[in-house]
Specification:
Endonuclease III, domain 1, 52% helix, 11 helices, two-stranded parallel sheet
Length: 189
């Protein structure tokens, strides 16, 4: 992409990553299905690059019924086998089963919370934490908030919900604004 915009230094020429950075990363999300999508994708990203996940994102949406929480929560062993044979997604049994489990745990949460959105945003006091990093190397991989989120999610039976995954999720859904201060998106989000 040739433009005069200053971005976070992700050192990439990959258009899909630039597009994600410019339009999604750090933008607050309050839709339960989109929040679940990001949680699932961050689960699948564990041990892999975000680029790998983004390249398969549309396939994930098709394979997981557009991350419709009740649909995914109802998946059975036959559906797991189907997903394990889908070359368009990351075929990892633990991650697939964790995604199904996490959809079921979200449905459990809804018995006590108005929405997944209301539950998850409580960890940042229902507002975006705006950081002021000068360099991408300053970005943490966890925070006090992601530690608390991880602990609570795990206590409720969520899988692949470690603090590092929770922090990446928080960045994705705009619970934290980790754009560097020189990035054109820092003030926009």
């Amino acid at each position: 992409m040739v433009d005069n915009l200053t971005r976070c230094d992700w050192r990439t020429s990959e258009q899909i990553l630039i597009q994600y950075h410019d339009t999604e990363w750090g933008v607050p999300v309050h839709d339960d299905h989109r929040l679940f999508e990001y949680l699932a994708l961050d689960c699948f990203q564990a041990g892999l690059s975000w680029l790998t996940v983004l390249k398969k994102r549309e396939n994930f949406r098709k394979a997981f019924d557009n991350f419709n929480i009740p649909s995914v929560a109802s998946y059975d062993n036959k559906k797991v086998a189907q997903l394990l044979n889908d070359p368009g997604i990351i075929r990892n049994r633990q991650k697939i089963e964790a995604t199904i489990n996490n959809a079921q745990r979200i449905l459990d949460l809804l018995k006590n919370f108005e929405s997944f959105d209301k539950y998850i945003w409580q960890f940042t006091g229902y507002k975006t934490i705006i950081n002021h990093w000068k360099d991408i190397s300053e970005l943490p991989v966890t925070s006090k908030e992601s530690d608390e989120m991880s602990k609570d999610l795990k206590s409720r039976g969520f899988k692949f919900a470690g603090s590092t995954i929770c922090y990446a999720f928080m960045q994705s859904v705009g619970m934290v604004n980790d754009h560097t201060v020189d990035c054109f998106r820092h003030r926009q989000v």
